Amino acid sequence: MAKGYWIGRVDVTDMDAYKEYVAANAEAFRTYGARFLVRGGAFECVEGAARARNVVIEFDSYDQALACYRSDAYAHAKSLREKAAVSDIIVIEGYDGPQP
Predict the structure, then answer these.
(1) What is the per-residue DSSP string for 55-76?
(2) In Å, how far from its chain's centre is CA 63?
(3) Across the chain, what does the average pLDDT equal?
(4) Is 15 helix (H, G, I), strand (E, B) or coil?
(5) Domain extents for the chain?
(6) Is the pLDDT of residue 72 over 90?
(7) What order of strands is seen across the sheet that includes strand 4-12?
(8) pLDDT tens for residues 24-67?
(9) Which residue, 54, 58, 49, is CA-closest to 6?
(10) 59 dihedral zone (left: phi>0; alpha: psi -120 to 50; beta)
(11) For residue 1, is pLDDT > 90?
């Protein structure tokens, strides 16, 4: 079964409020087995537009990734994020097929 991922691109507008979001999202991420693959870090935008911060979070499945995003546990954290940052977030199913 393919894994699920959140891919987030974020411009933080209020760092103190964003820290509250980070603290608040931990419960949902623990509950749904989230694992950070990318959390900030150096990057170079080689095509298109970028935001200042990039995040990739892995879940055991696409359904688990969606369930976390839609959960009551994440709803509070999301409301904090919306006050602290401008974000693009997608939930996407990973690829589990043959590789080149």
Answers:
(1) EEEEESSHHHHHHHHHSHHHHH
(2) 15
(3) 97
(4) helix
(5) 4-93
(6) yes
(7) 35-39, 53-59, 4-12, 85-93
(8) 999 999 999 999 999 999 999 999 999 999 999 999 999 999 99
(9) 58
(10) beta
(11) no
Percent of the chain at pLDDT exceeding 90: 98
Alpha helix stretches (DSSP H) within the chain? 15-31, 62-70, 72-84
Helix 15-31, helix 72-84: angle, nearest 10: 160
* In contact, 29 and 68? CB cutoff 8 Å: yes
**Angle at which helices 15-31 and 62-70 pack, to 10 degrees?**
130
Q: Give CATH for domain 4-93.
A: 3.30.70.100
Q: In the structure encoding, which two tokens stand for residue 93, read together?
A: 């199913």
Kindly report whether the global pTM for this prediction surpasses the value 0.85: yes
